[in-house]
């Protein structure tokens, strides 16, 4: 039987490297990726690792979808990097799995006065500027700076979470909990403009900041 090389998993220095066949279609890649994740679910268990995509060039939207498949099919806790394998863009997802509900992708900055309301999760390929708001019943992923108001789990889902590559003064809500990123708090914590993963822990919003100064 001919081996399917559409998606190949290899162990790297820092985690899993996924080689994607440059000639394969995105649909074939996603199908093969899901099948291999299903077959490897017991092997991965609840491990924590990084995942890097090489070979076929894919968009950040496609990366988010592949990472979502990991969360749907396994209990793997992941820190994923972009397809270059360089850890220049890193988003920490420890402690939660991507939601399986419908996801809306917004491929631009969200300007002041603009709003997104979604029954499901939201992926922003840009910044959420001051004066903008995102309200989702699921998770919110921001591939840019979180500077406005973001509400995940708006219908009471305390398992929802918010991830952003950078943080500016802003307000975040998860289910019925509210907290603020103030200028003073970010400067005191030494994490201004670095990534954040916010989730509910011990009945309050807990924030893990990623990256080094």
Work out the radius of gyration: 17 Å
Number of helices: 3
Task: Give the N-to-C terminal Cα separation.
Answer: 51 Å
- The secondary-structure element order is EEHEHEEEEEEEEEEEHEE
Number of strands: 16
Shape: globular
Measured as a percent range, the helix fraction is 10-25%
Spell out the blueprint of helices and strands.
Blueprint: E1 7-11, E2 15-20, H1 26-44, E3 48-55, H2 60-73, E4 77-81, E5 90-92, E6 103-106, E7 115-118, E8 121-124, E9 133-136, E10 140-146, E11 149-152, E12 161-167, E13 170-174, E14 177-181, H3 183-189, E15 196-201, E16 204-209
Parallel strand pairs: 2-3, 3-4, 6-8, 7-9, 8-10, 9-11, 10-12, 11-13
Antiparallel strand pairs: 1-2, 4-5, 12-15, 13-14, 15-16
Helix pairs in contact: 1-2
Compact description:
By secondary structure, the chain is an alpha/beta fold. It has three helices and 16 strands.
What are the defining features of this structure?
39% strand; globular; 3 helices; 16 strands; 213 residues; 6-stranded mixed beta sheet; alpha/beta; single chain; 5-stranded mixed beta sheet
Summarize the structure in words.
The chain is an alpha/beta fold and 213 residues long. It is built from 3 helices and 16 strands. The protein has helices at 26-44, 60-73, 183-189, and strands spanning 7-11, 15-20, 48-55, 77-81, 90-92, 103-106, 115-118, 121-124, 133-136, 140-146, 149-152, 161-167, 170-174, 177-181, 196-201, 204-209. A 6-stranded mixed sheet has the order 6-8-10-12-15-16, with helices on one face. Strands 1-2-3-4-5 form a 5-stranded mixed sheet, with helices on one face. Strand 13 (170-174) and strand 14 form a beta hairpin. The radius of gyration is 17 Å and the shape is globular.
């Amino acid at each position: 039987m001919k081996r399917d090389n559409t998606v190949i998993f290899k162990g790297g220095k820092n985690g899993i490297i996924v080689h994607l066949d440059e000639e394969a279609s995105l649909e074939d890649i996603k199908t093969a990726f899901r099948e291999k994740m299903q077959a490897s679910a017991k092997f991965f268990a609840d491990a924590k690792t990084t995942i890097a995509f090489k070979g076929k060039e894919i968009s950040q939207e496609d990366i988010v979808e592949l990472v979502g498949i990991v969360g749907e099919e396994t209990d793997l806790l992941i820190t994923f990097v972009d397809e270059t394998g360089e850890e220049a863009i890193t988003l920490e997802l420890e402690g939660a799995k991507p939601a399986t509900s419908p996801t809306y992708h917004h491929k631009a900055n969200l300007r002041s006065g603009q709003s997104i309301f979604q029954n499901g999760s939201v992926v922003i390929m840009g910044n959420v500027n001051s004066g903008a708001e995102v309200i989702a019943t699921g998770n919110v992923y921001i591939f840019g700076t979180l500077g406005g108001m973001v509400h995940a789990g708006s219908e009471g889902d305390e398992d929802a979470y918010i991830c952003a590559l950078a943080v500016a003064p802003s307000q975040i809500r998860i289910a019925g909990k509210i907290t603020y990123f103030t200028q003073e708090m970010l400067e005191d914590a030494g994490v201004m403009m670095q990534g954040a993963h916010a989730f509910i822990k011990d009945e309050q919003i807990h924030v893990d900041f990623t990256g080094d100064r």
